[in-house]
Amino acid sequence: MIEAIGLTKRYGRTVAVRDLSFTVRPGRVTGFLGPNGAGKSTTMRMILGLDRPTEGRVLIDGRPYHELRHPMRTVGALLDAKWVHPNRSARNHLRWLARASQLPRARVDEVLAQVGLTTVADKRAGTFSLGMSQRLGIAAALLGDPQVLLFDEPVNGLDPEGILWIRRIMQGLAAEGRTVLVSSHLLSEMAQTAEDLIVIGRGQLISQGTVDAFVNGATETTVLVRSPQAERLVEVLTQWGMSVRITDDDALVISGGSSDQIGEMAATHGVVLHELSPQQGSLEEAFMRLTGHAVEYQSDEVTVS
Amino acid sequence: MTLLAVERIKLFSTRAPVWCIATALVLTIGVTAGLTMLDHAGEGPTPSSTQTMYILGLTVIMVMATLSVTTEYRFGTMRATFQAVSSRSRALLAKATVLAIVAGLVGEVSSFGSWGVAKLIAHSPDTDIHTAAEWRQIAGMGLVYAIAAVLAVAVGALLRQSAAAVAILLVFPLLVEQLVEIIPRVGDRLHDWMPFVAASQFASTADRGLPYGPWGGLAYFAAIAAALLVAALAVVEKRDA
Q1: What residue range is the signal peptide (chain A) (predicted)?
Q2: Residue A305: what pLDDT?
Q3: Do residues A51 and A103 both lie within one domain?
């Protein structure tokens, strides 16, 4: 379990994270979502005690990071797969980490096998592809068999096979009852990986809850209707307080009513319908709606007069 | 002990430190051998004169020590270290200790190696070690190297940048400390209290009119290194990794 309480991080006059509080529960994958520059990495570094919070604190299973005796046996993290000396072999990289956590040397070979790097274990880490570096980073995170795991943008730049592999690893870890926090700016990825979501924008909490609740709560459900008697239908529907938008190809997008209600009303008034389909809002839409005003680096609209 | 083992694994699992150690020894002993051969016509070398090249190896070892910190910052392994070891001070102290031990051993091999190679080449009784001061100079060289390594680790941790740290460690002992003498009125006295001038008082047997003896010089050099290390520990604890 990870608890952030009033986390704030200022760099001079810039506020990277502002009064952020959230809880990450064990036994499920929690997505940490936000646009680039929202403060996800800064928050993760604060959880790991690498950056000092200006205000607030983070507790891991009730204790701050620096009070953990062998931190890597409690928290495993992959913040940046490139945090490896390029001239050191994968095995030696894990060897010194294992030694620092007083883990037996055999554990190094175990995690190397687990991530499928046994055959390249003695190659220099600098020669690794991104996918292999990512596997080495995950091996390091798993080394201490920790109950809490953090991954910062773990699928960035990976091929589909690599993405699937990491997704399975994270879900497997959560299924074992561990706490898994994974950050991403990709909603589609989170929708497939995470059950819980913490959404931040400009360093502030936007929402926390399940992925389903996030989508339902943040998106507007609309109904798409096509009818040769569109004008008559609009008249009826607006009388019942629904709002109607007409698209470029003469379809009606109706909000404020369910497809059942619209169908029944059309039948009552003898209106022919060619199409009647409920439109589920996507996670992307929900995300854009919520964080649209919270994007740090928004491109200015160019107006030509 | 655990942290010392961690830093030992880190130091010797890349090739650069091994090359630095080899370079330090080959340079110091090699140049001493070369000078002894060229000087064949004159008198045999004294134990003291076989030690004048110590600054070559010392410089290389300081570069190795400071890079052992700055490369960790460059490649992010310092963050990995702080993740694995919750006390940053203990991690940095372990690194300073391991580098001091390695540098000390290199210093000993280098000083006795330089003396030995000169003795082999010159075959002169003048090269035999007779006085306590000569023993102190040669056997004590490891201390100078060890302290210099701690100083270099501290400079690396304070600056975090390879280029800046190496530049300072090269330019300060080799140029700045000499140029200080140009300053009117206070230059001479300032020069006497430069850290590497103090170290050289211990690493030679010549009387250069300094206000302290060899052991005083070594203690002063150690105090400077300790002060820098304390500053580095404070800064490393405080700033974001």
Answers
A1: none
A2: 43
A3: yes
Looking up residue A273, the CATH number of its domain turns out to be 3.30.70.980
Q: Give the residue numbers spanning the domain of A259.
A: 220-279
- Measured N-to-C along each axis, helices A259-268 and A230-239 cross at an angle, to the nearest 10 degrees, of 110
Q: What is the pLDDT of residue A290?
A: 67
Q: Could you tell me if A188 and A229 lie in one domain?
A: no
Are A133 and A239 part of one and the same domain? no
A120 and A197 housed in the same domain:
yes
Using a CB cutoff of 8 Å and minimum separation of 24, what contacts does B121-128 make?
A: B121/B33, B121/B36, B121/B37, B121/B40, B122/B36, B122/B40, B122/B44, B122/B45, B123/B44, B124/B43, B124/B44, B124/B45, B125/B44, B126/B43, B126/B44, B126/B45, B126/B46, B127/B44, B127/B45, B127/B46, B127/B47, B127/B50, B128/B47
- Which of B10, B15, B241 is facing A50, going by the closest CB pair? B241
Measured between CB atoms, does B211 come within 8 Å of chain A? no
Q: Identify whether residues A231 and A119 lie together within a single domain.
A: no
Nearest to B5 among A65, A97, A99 (CB): A99
Chain A CB within 8 Å of residue B75 CB: yes
Of residues A48, A51, A85, nearest to B83 (C-beta): A48
**Other CB atoms closer than 10 Å to residue B174's CB: what's the count?**
12
Quick check: helix, strand or coil at residue B17? Answer: helix
How is residue B230 written in tokens? 């304390």
Q: What CA–CA distance (Å, rounded) separates A184 from A157?
A: 12
Residues A258 and A116 in one domain: no
| Within a domain: A153 | yes
For residue A239, the model assigns a pLDDT of 85
Contact A28, A196 (CB under 8 A): yes
Q: Tell me if A88 and B14 make a contact (CB, 8 A cut-off).
A: yes
ipTM: 0.90
Is residue A82 located within the same domain as residue A188? yes
Is B86 in contact with A67 (CB distance < 8 Å)?
A: yes
Q: How far is CA A77 from CA A141, B31, B81, B145, in A?
A: 5, 49, 12, 38
Identify which of A187, A198, A202, A184 has the alpha carbon closest to the alpha carbon of residue A294.
A202
Q: Rounded to 5 degrees, what angle do the CA atoms B83, B86, B88 make?
A: 95
State both tokens at B93: 């102290």
B240 to chain A, any CB pair closer than 8 A? The answer is: yes
CA distance B70 to chain A (A): 12
Q: Using a CB-CB distance cutoff of 8 angstroms, which residues of chain A are in contact with residue B240?
A: 45, 50-52
The secondary element (H helix, E strand) that includes residue A276 is strand A275-279
pLDDT at B126: 85
Residue A30 lies inside a defined structural domain of this protein: yes
**β-strand partners of A205:** A200
Same domain, A233 and A148: no
Count of the separate structural domains present in chain A:
2
Q: Decide if A162 is inside a domain.
A: yes
Q: Is the pLDDT of residue B142 over 80?
A: yes
